[in-house]
């Protein structure tokens, strides 16, 4: 018996197979969620560079000693630890939505002046006008409602106190991520929807200024902070992307082994490798500060 299949049905069938194969290879961007859970995997990816930015950030803020601080979205404790080491605070409260990160920070930072709590940046478990400084490092763009987070930071500090934050310049000089996404998008056009440079337009001077001004803060300023991100070799650059912490690593681990290998070699071919195999890039953060009237 002969089976006849119309051209229309054949085309539909083939398209179905193609779409199914595509979905087996890659997960749709809308189905991916940023993962922030394992401190030991976050540290080599971003934590080590955040610590460098934190020092310059605190120097810029110039908050007096013996002040009560809040670190919103404290993560693995990079900014909190720098406050302890350089700011001589009376106390620091670190709040993060990830239990894994707060546990990592507790294990790493043993100080009688610090306590870590699991909490929501948009509804801080802190009394109104009870602190002297509220800061946040590399978090605001990941909060569902950044204006609410900044408003909460302003609420918990006393009049005259500083509210400040820093975020990566994803679309510009955060080079370790730019090389990754430029290569990823060249190989997979859908990856552009995951690129932080596209996802987070807030991470630019004008939007940051407007965000803080709209929260009722005065004397709002934005400042670039550049730090060197030096890698001893390509593996030192690439390995942290395999930890799955954040958008770029999350995308990398979602790929099949073959597709991930193609991406790896594409990035390797585009990075500025020195003769000894080392890689020297720049990571720029935008810092913003304001004062509660």
Automatic annotation (TrEMBL):
Keywords: Methyltransferase, Transferase. Residues 70-163 form the Methyltransferase type domain. One of its GO terms (biological process) is methylation. It holds the Pfam family Methyltransf_11. GO terms for molecular function: S-adenosylmethionine-dependent methyltransferase activity. InterPro entries: Methyltransf_11, SAM-dependent_MTases_sf. Transmembrane segments: none annotated. The keyword Transferase applies. This is SAM-dependent methyltransferase.
């Amino acid at each position: 018996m002969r089976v006849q299949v119309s051209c229309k049905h054949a085309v539909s069938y083939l398209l179905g197979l193609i779409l199914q194969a595509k979905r087996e290879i890659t997960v749709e961007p809308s189905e991916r969620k940023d993962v922030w859970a394992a401190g030991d995997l976050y540290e080599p990816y971003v934590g080590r560079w955040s610590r460098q930015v934190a020092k310059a950030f605190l120097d810029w803020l110039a908050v007096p000693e013996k002040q009560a601080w809040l670190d919103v979205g404290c993560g693995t404790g990079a900014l909190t630890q720098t406050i302890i080491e350089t700011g001589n605070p009376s106390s620091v409260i670190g709040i993060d939505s990830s239990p894994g990160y707060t546990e990592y920070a507790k294990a790493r930072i043993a100080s009688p002046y610090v306590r870590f709590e699991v909490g929501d940046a948009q509804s801080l478990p802190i009394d109104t006008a009870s602190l002297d400084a509220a800061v946040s490092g590399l978090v605001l763009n990941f909060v569902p409602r950044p204006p609410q987070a900044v408003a909460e930071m302003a609420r918990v500090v006393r009049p005259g106190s500083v509210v400040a934050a820093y975020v990566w310049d994803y679309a510009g000089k955060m080079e370790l991520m730019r090389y990754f996404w430029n290569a990823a998008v060249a190989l997979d056009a859908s990856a552009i929807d995951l690129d932080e440079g596209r996802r987070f337009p807030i991470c630019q001077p004008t939007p940051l200024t407007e965000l803080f001004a709209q929260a009722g803060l005065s004397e709002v300023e934005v400042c670039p902070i550049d730090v060197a991100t030096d890698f001893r070799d390509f593996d030192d650059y690439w390995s942290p992307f395999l930890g799955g912490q954040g958008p770029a690593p999350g995308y990398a681990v979602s790929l099949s082994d073959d597709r991930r290998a193609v991406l790896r070699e594409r990035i390797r071919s585009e990075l500025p490798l020195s003769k000894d195999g080392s890689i020297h890039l720049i990571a720029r953060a935008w810092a913003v500060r304001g004062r509660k009237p």
